[in-house]
Design a protein that fits this description.
CATH class of the largest domain: Alpha Beta
Number of helices: 10
Structural class: alpha/beta
Number of strands: 11
Radius of gyration: 18 Å
CATH superfamily of the largest domain: Periplasmic binding protein-like II
CATH architecture of the largest domain: 3-Layer(aba) Sandwich
Distance between the termini: 34 Å
Helix content: 25-40%
Number of domains: 2
Strand content: 15-25%
Length: 258
């Protein structure tokens, strides 16, 4: 939540010309994106600004929250969602043209555990041990990571068994924070989130072939106030330079061409 609040304040400041930001809308691109992209997009934005001289303003949060804001008319130039479902939501609302959308990245579902968990997990059934009392998960009815995880657990026959231990939270990063600070003993996150962990450890990764397809689509929003800048940034996201940045943070790149 702290990350989301900070980014919302930055966006508000950018739109109002406050916080020392003198860039006009035509000189900046407002990118609203899944919070799991925080660090990689910070690096991408820095590289883009150096290459183009055009400023990127990041608004980061849970994809479902951002999608709801866009549907309600919130200003956004580019939307990068952590799942197809939320992108479809704004397409259905007439906020995105399908031809302005691409499937950009993929990710892997993993479990991280707190230091108090000393047992090795050879499968997800290991989460049923008594020492693991709580498992954080992005809200499985809305947050993309939670939706992916619920789908996988249901297909594996473990959803009902694990349900009493699940602690729904507002985003995948909130799940990571919960396990990092010992509020829960385990958390369902993405592989890329593990790079941000300092206390918890990777315990189990779901094989790609067994998991739901995790896809991050990106699109120009119809009400973009800087359509040309949005188009340039979307093109940049598929450049070889940016591909290397994505791979550094362990995202899978689905395409580098437009």
């Amino acid at each position: 939540m702290a990350i989301l609040l900070m980014m919302v304040l930055l966006v508000f400041g950018a739109l109002q010309g406050s916080c020392g930001n003198t860039a006009s809308p035509s000189q900046s691109v407002l990118v609203s994106a899944a919070v799991s992209l925080t660090e990689v997009l910070e690096d991408v934005a820095e590289a883009y600004e150096k290459a183009s001289g055009e400023q990127i303003v990041l608004n980061l949060g849970s994809s479902n929250t951002i999608a709801r804001q866009i549907v309600a008319g919130a200003p956004t130039d580019v939307f990068i969602s952590a799942d197809v479902r939320q992108m479809k939501r704004i397409e259905d609302a007439g906020r995105v043209n399908p031809r302005d959308r691409i499937d950009l990245l993929t990710n892997q579902l993993v479990v991280v555990v707190a230091p108090v968990v000393t047992e090795d997990l050879v499968s997800l059934k290991g989460l049923l041990i008594p020492s693991i009392r709580r498992v954080a998960i992005g809200d499985p009815s809305a947050v993309p990571a939670g939706v992916y995880w619920r789908e996988y657990l249901e297909s594996s026959g473990l959803w009902e068994d694990l349900l009493p231990k699940l602690v729904p939270v507002s985003s995948v990063r909130a799940a990571l924070v919960a396990v990092e600070y010992g509020t829960v003993e385990a958390a369902f996150v993405y592989r890329t989130d593990v790079l941000m962990a300092s206390r918890s450890r990777l315990a189990f990764a779901v094989p790609y072939e067994e998991a739901p397809s995790v896809v991050y689509p990106a699109a120009i929003v119809k009400q973009a106030r800087n359509r040309d800048g949005a188009d340039r940034f979307l093109t940049y996201l598929r450049s070889p330079i940016v591909q290397k940045i994505f791979e550094k943070y362990e995202f899978g790149v689905l395409t580098i061409r437009r």
